[in-house]
Design goal:
The protein is an all-alpha fold. The chain has a single domain (15-271, 349-566), classed as MetI-like fold (Orthogonal Bundle). It is built from 19 helices and four strands. The strands form two sheets. A two-stranded antiparallel ribbon has the order 1-2. It has a two-stranded antiparallel ribbon with strand order 3-4. The longest helix is centred in the middle third of the chain and has 66 residues, at 285-350. The radius of gyration is 24 Å and the shape is globular. The termini are close together. The relative contact order is 0.14.
Length: 570
């Protein structure tokens, strides 16, 4: 381990932070103005509980998830690479990513849906809004993990790339991307599991007499719950579980087994991850022929094209740099002017709130903050030992991971009505149910990151600690926690953001015609969304964003700096 001393960066707020906050207000204001243009009732699709429709609904939900994941992966590779490769870009991109992952996207759902419906045909607008919502639940976690992997590439690997004089593309494809693959795969699994949570919310969205539901498993489950049809509810959950199990066996398990070849270890693991699907595919003569005749030549052409672009870019930049800079400044000035105008109008709208409204926001923020801390403490208490045990024992991983993947992918929103029925009669039942929903929705962020960190520990380091007789608490303190620390920080950051997001659907619940709510910022956002109270929606959303960003700056960023400076596997 690299153990040189590191001093955490001092907390500071910059002009860029204020501008990002103003841009957020501008976005909310523009969305609110577009949303006000949608008038009258909107009829939604007819959701039938006939079991024969389940394959169709499952396919629709799966396509939305796949589209969002493809968008998230492309965003991760580009954004994370830019932030890790360019220090100037990092100074801008990381604060922006801080704000983006802090935004409670569920509070934006009404504004985004109504705005898109006003801009594009209703059906397409709602579909785009659903994909955007799922994208925001997947992309930030993957980007943080990918960025952190790129900045912690071992020194000897970077030196080898320099010795062979690899260009930026070959260095990225043959050194940096392989090193980041294991973490990216595990965070992809976790992001996909978290995406089900937001997919259910997007497919069930209704606002007064405006019905924006989408045909899918989310709408099927909600309709079954509203009608009290227990048989249909179980069928819907069964279809969801079958879909999740199929994805685990035919997608994630093969990818995990394939990614294990990128593990940094000099000693072969006795129980590497295995997948029967990957074994079958590896013996396929047709796939071998396709890879030799199409994939390999395509990869070579891509390498040649990217190298040519890398060599030609400086020359093109020298010829057209002046015009590009002028065009860039012109676009920037237009964007800044729009943000300043819309942001000032948004601030004026927020200014209409009274002192009582602000006191309500503060009390609600304190209540939600307490629930987030409780949920995070419970999640860390069980995911740390379990995740390390699974990640350091591949035999145990092969047995438990399919089960964990299924359980993690079942959206907590589908189980929430059951929790609510069990706890609603207990004193403080809704507050307890809210904490449980936060726990169900965020614990997997921690678990999957911890498993990925434990699996990335080289086998020879494990044998070294055993030969030195290091065990018990000392082994955890001096070996396990430092080794998984970067992954643990990523998991804590994304779990915290997920808990704040989950508060919006856990503190304010509509069930069987009755509204249940408890004091909290999530309840305030949800109720103001339903009432189309845009000043309160903007103020409470900004309050949540500011709180999460401050936590990131005061605490999480210092841990990131510590992980980057001290906990490299060098």
């Amino acid at each position: 381990m690299n153990i040189r001393q590191v001093y955490p960066p001092r907390f500071s707020l910059r002009i860029g932070d204020a501008f990002v906050a103003l841009a957020l207000v501008a976005f909310l204001y523009i969305g609110a103005r577009l949303a006000l243009g949608v008038s009258g009732s909107v009829a939604g699709p007819q959701i039938t509980l006939d079991p024969i429709t389940l394959p169709y609904y499952s396919a629709r939900s799966l396509l939305r998830m796949a589209a969002a994941y493809a968008l998230s992966l492309a965003f991760t590779l580009v954004y994370g690479n830019l932030a890790a490769r360019n220090r100037r870009a990092e100074m801008v991109l990381l604060p922006v990513l801080d704000v983006l992952q802090s935004i409670p996207i569920l509070s934006f759902l009404p504004v985004v849906v109504l705005a898109l419906v006003n801009l594009v045909p209703a059906g397409l607008g709602v579909e785009i809004a659903a994909v955007i919502l799922i994208f925001t639940s997947q992309a930030w976690n993957m980007t943080f993990a990918f960025y952190h992997a790129l900045i912690t590439v071992p020194k000897e690997m970077r030196e080898a790339a320099a010795v062979f004089r690899l260009g930026w593309w070959l260095r990225f494809r043959s050194v940096e991307l392989p090193f980041a693959t294991i973490g990216l795969v595990w965070n992809s699994m976790m992001s996909w599991a978290g995406g089900w949570f937001f997919l259910m919310a997007a497919e069930q969205f209704q606002l007064g007499d405006k019905d924006f539901r989408l045909p899918g498993l989310g709408s099927y489950l909600k309709t079954a719950a509203e009608q009290g049809d227990l048989g249909a509810l179980l069928l819907g959950l069964g279809a969801l579980v079958i879909l999740i199990v199929g994805l685990d066996q035919f997608v994630w398990r093969p990818v995990i087994a394939w990614a294990d070849k990128f593990n940094l270890q000099t000693v072969e693991d006795a129980n590497p991850p295995r997948s029967w699907v990957l074994d079958v595919l590896s013996r396929s003569a047709l796939l071998e022929w396709l890879g030799r005749r199409t994939l390999s030549p395509a990869g070579e052409r891509l390498d040649a094209a990217m190298n040519w672009l890398a060599q030609a870019a400086p020359h093109r930049g020298a010829r057209h740099g002046h015009l590009l800079r002028l065009g860039g400044w012109a676009v920037l000035l237009v964007v800044v002017a729009l943000i300043v105008y819309a942001g000032s109008r948004g601030i004026t709208m927020i200014g209409s709130l009274g002192l009582g409204d602000w006191l309500t926001i503060l009390a609600s923020a304190a209540a939600t903050f307490t629930r987030v801390l409780v949920a995070l403490a419970f999640a860390l208490a069980w995911t740390l030992p379990v995740g390390v045990a699974i990640g350091m024992n591949h035999r145990l991983a092969n047995r438990l991971l399919p089960i964990i993947q299924v359980v993690a992918s079942v959206p907590a929103t589908a189980l929430f009505p059951v929790l609510l029925l069990l706890l609603i009669t207990v004193s403080g039942g809704l507050s307890l149910a809210a904490v449980l929903l936060m726990l169900l929705g965020t614990q997997w962020y921690l678990l999957f990151n911890i498993i990925a960190g434990a699996m990335a520990i080289p086998q020879d380091l494990k044998y070294t600690t055993q030969s030195l007789g290091i065990s018990g608490f000392e082994r955890w303190r001096s070996f396990i926690v430092p080794a998984i620390f970067p992954y643990l920080v990523t998991g804590l950051i994304t779990a915290t953001g997920g808990a704040w997001n989950a508060s919006i659907v856990s503190e304010y619940v509509l069930f069987a015609g009755t509204t249940y709510r408890t004091l909290g910022l999530g309840a305030l956002i949800a109720s103001s969304s339903e009432a189309a109270d845009f000043p309160m929606l903007m103020a409470s959303t900004l309050a949540m964003v500011i709180i999460v960003v401050l936590i990131n700056r005061l605490f999480w960023r210092r841990l990131y700096a510590l992980a980057e400076a001290r906990f490299h596997l060098d």
